Amino acid sequence: MRRLLPLSALRAFEAAARHGSFKQAANELGVTPTAVSHQIRLLEEFTGLSLFERQVRKVVLTDAGAELYPVLRDGFNTFETALQRLGTPQARRRVIISTTNAFMARWLAPRVAGFRKLHPEIDLELHASDQAVDLGPDDADLAIRYGRGPYPGMVAEPLFTDCFAPVASPQLGPIGQADLDRFPLIDFKWCHDHPLNPTWKNWFAAAGLPWKARHGQLLFSDEGHAIQAALAGQGIALLSLELVADDIAAGRLTRPFGPSLPGHTYHLVRSAGHMPGPHVDSALEWLRGQIHGPANPSGRPAETDDFAQP
Fold first, then answer.
1. For the structural domain made of 94-289, what CATH number should be given?
2. Where is the HTH lysR-type domain (predicted)?
């Protein structure tokens, strides 16, 4: 059976050994120097050892005291650390994900409830911007960037390449290519000019139709606003079929005619110089699992795609 240890005496000894003074130990413990001296005497009787040499105005550890002190010091430090950890709520993990405004609103935001169900212990901070943000331990952990790369200093994996096609609200009624002059063409400004951007001019070339300056064209600075205009029946829009997949499936938009144009590629990007923690790895795996299906409450991809890939 384990002997009952004189804990008060051990605490007094540890404080006196650390300070090299019974008086300073007494101040720390809130007792008198006489009480500390008494506790040390009890511990020496308990162990049968002399633990201190009493000198004028100070005490010095004996060989036995010097061997006992670090054991008690480390033990009390361990007790304190464990009690602080048990008494302090654990800090929640957070993952910061950055992506474009339209992708955030139309693709990522509708899916985050699924992540919360799978990982309630992780908080998501979502940052929407059409300008690239810094990645690293003090910035965003992950980014979903749209373009052709490359991304120097980054680990980038392609997620998917979308395609663009004319879409319109059923409010406009049955329409075909011959109706292009009847309705405004809804378009938006691309952040970066590129000859392969899926623009209406490039679409007309792919359809074998002459391009000319058009009257009544609606040009937006934001892709999300162009989508809203199409949903409101304001005209025919050339939009990413990925971002309007749910609207087409629900009948809020239709694809009245072709052809479709390949878009750019969405890349999952993180800093090459920063190793992700387990919480970031969880977000990475979840994002990869979301690629091939529309949003659903389970946070898992559907079995089939509701949109055409280029």
1. 3.40.190.290
2. 5-62
